[in-house]
Amino acid sequence: MKFSFFDGHNDTLLNLYNNHKNDAESFFNTLSGGHIDYERAVNSGMEGGFFAIFPPPYTSLSLPDPEKFLTPEGYDVPLPEAVDPEACRKVTDEMIDLLYQIETNSNHRFKVVKDSNELEKTVQNGQMAAVLHFEGAEVISPDLSNLEYYYEKGLRSLGLVWSRPNAFAQGVPYRYPSTGDIGPGLSEQGIALVKKSNQFGIMLDTSHLNEKGFWDVVAHSNAPIVATHSNAYALSPISRNLTDEQLKAIGDSNGVAGVTYSVNMLRKDGKMIQETPIGEVVSHIRYIVQLIGAEHVALGSDFDGTTLPNEINDVTDVPKLIEALEKDGFTNDEIERICFRNWHRVLADTWK
Ligand SMILES: [Zn+2]
């Protein structure tokens, strides 16, 4: 059976911004390289996804290399420094313009969706649906005075942090083996941002947040708890992954965890090795389903933002993953939930 899918996280805007001169037309050009472009995505059944804006200085190629920070047991990459909010604002505005330029150039094939009806209609019409996501809240003023500006621009999903500190929270450094319990929880402004995001109906993403921050979001948010691209710590004990207790909190809130294909977060040894079988992705999905149910697991690729297994070279290999889920015994109903229905539900519950 052919399934469509909605993806929890991609860095395709970053790829276009860094490698294609911020040119929207490249998205419709199959030569654009990277993991996602329009043709490859649509032909693979991608009905939509979260399109992240990740401000500088890092590109997916310049992230700190774990091999440079080895420890006797694994690695411990120091937390990068906070970045200048003003510089982030400039790039963020340019990347928002890029996203809408893609919509304009798409000839009604691509739409930035801002409410649940729009999401359903867009998908039904066979258009690709994009959710505007910020991977880190650097651009938001600590007094939250410009949150409405970004909401008006279409912001509907907000990661409090990437793996670095900002005014609101502390990101989790890449450490293996380690839980995410590294560093302090949310600041006062961070708690205020959670509450105000709830009021606007902006989805909060806990991926890249440290564990104390995660529990602060659980304590203060009235929306489903979401991690767009994080896996099971029980199978891959890296700080970016979620412990059973965190996964249970996600399930209890009727939220969702998006399983990422990032090899270091799939593998038991935490290494950046592309020779990682597709079965590792299936194992993480199976584990989380058994722990909290198929209503709380989704896909969160991290396409264009990480190192992928050889067997998932780009978006065209997602059908292979779905086939592997079928072979593993997942029912069609479970696969539909994992592939798109859970994301639709969580967005409907959050955006209302
Ligand atoms: Zn990420």
Produce a short descriptive summary.
With 352 residues, this protein is α/β, with parallel strands linked by helices. Helices cover 37% and strands 13% of the residues. It is globular.
How are the secondary structure elements laid out?
Blueprint: E1 5-10, H1 12-19, H2 38-43, E2 46-53, E3 75-76, H3 85-105, E4 110-112, H4 116-124, E5 128-135, H5 147-152, E6 155-159, E7 175-176, H6 188-200, E8 203-205, H7 211-220, E9 226-227, H8 244-252, E10 256-259, H9 263-266, H10 279-292, E11 297-299, H11 318-327, H12 332-351
Parallel strand pairs: 1-2, 2-5, 4-5, 5-6, 6-8, 9-10, 10-11
Antiparallel strand pairs: 3-7
Helix pairs in contact: 4-12
The structure holds zinc ion (ZN).
Order of helices and strands: EHHEEHEHEHEEHEHEHEHHEHH
Total beta-strand segments: 11
The third-level CATH topology is TIM Barrel
The helix content, as a percent range, equals 25-40%
Strand content: 5-15%
CATH architecture: Alpha-Beta Barrel
CATH class (first level) name: Alpha Beta
For the biggest sheet, the summary is: 6 strands, parallel
Average residue pLDDT: 96
The rounded Rg comes to 18 Å
Shape: globular
User: What's the structural domain tally?
Assistant: 1
Terminal CA distance reads: 32 Å
